């Protein structure tokens, strides 16, 4: 019995093996799967054909990115409103400015990878022509959806395509499935982009291009800039001539910029090797050459203050004497020989950077950026106030005085020494102007507005205040204004100040043409508000407000660009100045930035634009402000999903008037 049982078991096993073998033979007649199939030359050809199309698109995309600042097609990647003729440099290819209208436009590494993925996806079907070259031998079917990924590395870029491809041999009806295709192209894009991003980040922080531009102007004796001299020779410059000179000087000098830890040859002049040496990276890029280029054909936008009708002259603060023609002549000659320079340059031009991998000379990356200077101050963020603020107190006293002394100089015939004899004081000619000031919201004429006048570095403080007209100690009019005399100045500033209002300025030349004319200004009223904070904390799927805890503090920055105004709130307000803050009365849009701190660690905040209702500003006295708690956060870029969530949530909880 035992032996017969064992025989039966072996018989069953044998039958199973035979049936299995028969099934394998049948299946193999019908289909061939993966590894055995790929060994067939025809199948390998199909795979290679697909991957060659991927590689072609990848290489073309990489080349375009190298030439166009990280963009395959900048006109599609950037909206038309941000891709006008001023927003890129043309050098055979269009290189978008990485900073335009005060907004960054540098693509991230992931942005570039997505562009390459889109290019491969969009061109794959047309390149392969749906594999029609193989359709006499094979039936090829595939799904339309393609999953493509690209990674940009230091020395190459790699792409992977996932697309189920079913290949059927028409002769023997065998089927083969291919699902993954790979392509790789050598490229220095990753390495060069890394250096380029560090250069532009350094420019954003230090504004070295603007600083060097101001140095180029200040260091040259070809331009009126700063200082004074005694020279009786008339001097004048034309803005157009200065622009032409600057184009040449900028083109030459920017070429002298070198970057530490890159491949460069020292200029050999201490001025350039010290001042024009930029530290943008601590990494080793000593096989990369960086050239900073400005083509004169690109031109520059230039404004110079003071200037008139395209002519720049030394600043004239010449007293005009009242008296004999000889007095006029004497004062005029003195003015001609005494020249003051305190000129302000505002300019904008574009620079192209060229980064070359010297190990692979054909690998060159271009990117571009604007250079923005306002009144000799780097103004990359558009925050420089146009009105000069460096006041010469001693000079102001003399400039604002209506009297001056005439000094006669003679040579002693005996000693041959120069002798001076002060003469009597003379009166300068000032010009009367009527100044009216209104409330920008109500259009009501305002009394008690202090009016000053600034000419370059000289400030005549509080020349007078607006008030109702009075005759014989009686008020005879209902409209307050100031009738006062102002010193002559070209392109000076009237300054209006009143408690509870934002200071206002108006540029206006004072000369004989404005004598006895009316000048109107307006002031923006400020509303003082109290405030409370609420911290938004996530509970389940929603954010719930809570009171601020004792270990938390909040910093709020509220600002506008037009008009330029900013205020800061800090809680807890241990300083009395932080107990309240001011908003402008009117329709204004504010940029609001908030940060929550626990000790020195950021634990959340908010960022949004805010346009409060004017009636609320006028009628309400307090504000409830919300900030989003995220927990400890070190990356405040929108690439950080945690911080982006906080920003998005804060936009749904703008301040509320209470």
Low-confidence stretches are: 1-7, 15-19, 21-37, 317-337
- How much β-strand is present in the residues? 35-45%
Shape: globular
Structural class: alpha+beta
Mean pLDDT: 85
The biggest sheet amounts to: 12 strands, mixed
Q: Kindly state the number of beta strands.
A: 39
Specify Rg, calculated over alpha carbons.
Answer: 37 Å
Distance between the termini: 99 Å
Total DSSP helices: 13
Give the fraction of residues assigned to helices: 25-40%
Please tell me about this protein's structure.
The chain is α+β, with helices and mostly antiparallel strands. The protein is 26% helix and 37% strand. The chain has 13 helices and 39 strands. The strands form eleven sheets. Strands 22, 27, 29, 31, 32, 33, 34, 35, 36, 37, 38 and 39 form a twelve-stranded mixed β-sheet that branches. Helix 3 (41-67) packs across helix 5 (109-128) and helix 7 packs across helix 8. The radius of gyration is 37 Å and the shape is globular.
Structure in a nutshell:
The protein is α+β, with helices and mostly antiparallel strands and 658 residues long.
Protein topology:
Blueprint: H1 2-30, H2 35-38, H3 41-67, H4 74-77, E1 88-90, E2 94-96, E3 99-100, E4 103-104, H5 109-128, E5 138-142, E6 147-152, E7 156-169, E8 175-186, H6 189-206, H7 208-218, E9 226-230, E10 237-238, H8 239-254, E11 258-259, H9 270-275, E12 277-278, E13 288-293, E14 301-305, E15 311-312, H10 325-337, E16 338-342, E17 344-357, E18 364-374, E19 377-378, H11 393-400, E20 403-411, E21 418-427, E22 431-439, E23 450-455, E24 458-465, E25 470-471, E26 474-475, E27 482-486, E28 493-497, E29 501-502, E30 504-507, E31 517-539, E32 542-546, E33 552-560, E34 565-571, E35 581-584, E36 590-598, E37 601-610, H12 614-619, E38 622-629, H13 641-651, E39 656-657
């Amino acid at each position: 019995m035992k032996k017969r049982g064992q025989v039966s078991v072996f018989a069953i096993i044998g039958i199973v093996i035979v049936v299995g073998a028969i099934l394998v033979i049948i299946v193999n007649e019908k289909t061939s799967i993966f590894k055995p199939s790929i060994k067939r030359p025809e199948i390998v050809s199909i795979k290679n054909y697909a991957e060659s199309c991927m590689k072609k698109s990848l290489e073309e995309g990489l080349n375009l990115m190298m030439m166009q600042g990280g963009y395959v097609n900048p006109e599609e990647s950037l909206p038309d409103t941000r891709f006008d003729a001023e927003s890129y440099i043309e050098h055979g290819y269009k290189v978008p400015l990485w900073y335009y209208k005060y907004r960054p436009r540098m693509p991230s590494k992931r942005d570039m990878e997505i562009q390459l993925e889109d290019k491969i996806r969009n061109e794959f079907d047309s390149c392969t022509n749906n594999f029609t070259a193989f359709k006499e031998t094979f039936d090829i079917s595939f799904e339309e959806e393609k999953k493509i990924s690209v990674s940009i590395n230091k020395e190459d870029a790699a792409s992977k395509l996932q697309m189920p491809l079913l290949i059927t041999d028409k002769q023997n009806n065998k089927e083969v499935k291919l699902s993954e295709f790979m392509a790789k192209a050598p490229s220095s894009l990753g390495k060069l982009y890394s250096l380029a991003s560090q250069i532009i980040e350094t420019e954003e922080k230090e504004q070295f291009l603007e600083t060097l531009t101001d140095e180029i102007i200040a260091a040259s004796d070809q331009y009126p800039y700063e200082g004074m001299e005694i020279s009786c020779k008339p001097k004048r410059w034309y803005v157009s001539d200065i622009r032409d000179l600057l184009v040449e000087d900028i083109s030459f000098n920017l070429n002298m910029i070198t970057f530490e830890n890159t491949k460069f040859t020292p200029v050999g002049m201490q001025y350039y090797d010290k001042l024009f040496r930029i530290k943008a990276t601590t990494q080793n890029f000593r096989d990369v050459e960086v050239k900073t280029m400005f083509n004169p054909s690109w031109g520059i936008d230039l404004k110079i203050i003071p200037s008139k009708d395209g002519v720049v002259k030394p600043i004239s603060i010449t007293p005009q004497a009242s008296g004999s023609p000889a007095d006029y002549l004497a004062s005029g000659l003195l003015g001609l020989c005494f020249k003051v320079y305190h000129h302000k340059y505002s300019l904008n031009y574009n620079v192209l950077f060229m980064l070359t991998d010297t190990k692979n000379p054909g690998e060159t990356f271009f990117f571009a950026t604007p250079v923005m200077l306002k009144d000799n101050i780097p103004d990359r963020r558009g925050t420089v106030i146009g009105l000069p603020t460096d006041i010469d107190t001693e000079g102001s006293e003399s400039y604002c005085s209506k009297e001056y002394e005439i000094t006669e100089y003679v040579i002693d015939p005996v000693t041959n020494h120069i002798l001076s004899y002060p003469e009597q004081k003379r009166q300068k000619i000032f010009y009367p102007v009527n100044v009216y000031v209104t409330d920008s919201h109500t259009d009501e004429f305002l009394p008690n507005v202090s009016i000053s006048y600034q000419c370059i570095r000289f400030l005549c403080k509080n020349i007078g205040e607006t008030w109702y007209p009075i005759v014989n100690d009686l008020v005879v009019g209902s409209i307050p204004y100031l009738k006062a005399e102002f010193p002559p100045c070209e392109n000076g500033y009237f300054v209006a100040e009143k408690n509870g209002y934002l200071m206002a300025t108006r540029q206006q030349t004072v000369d004989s043409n404005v004598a006895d004319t009316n000048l109107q200004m307006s002031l923006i009223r400020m509303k003082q508000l109290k405030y409370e904070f609420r911290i938004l904390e996530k509970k389940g799927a929603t954010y719930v407000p809570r009171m601020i805890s004792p270990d938390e503090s909040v910093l709020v920055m509220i600002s506008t660009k037009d008009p330029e105004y900013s205020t800061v709130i800090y809680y807890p307000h241990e300083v009395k100045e932080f107990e309240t803050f001011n908003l402008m009365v009117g329709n204004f849009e504010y940029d609001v930035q908030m940060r929550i701190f626990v000790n020195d660690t950021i634990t959340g905040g908010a960022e949004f634009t805010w346009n409060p209702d004017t009636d609320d500003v006028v009628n309400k006295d307090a504000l409830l402000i919300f900030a989003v708690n995220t927990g400890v956060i070190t990356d405040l870029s929108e690439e950080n999903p945690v911080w982006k969530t906080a920003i998005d949530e804060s936009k749904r909880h703008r301040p509320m008037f209470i």
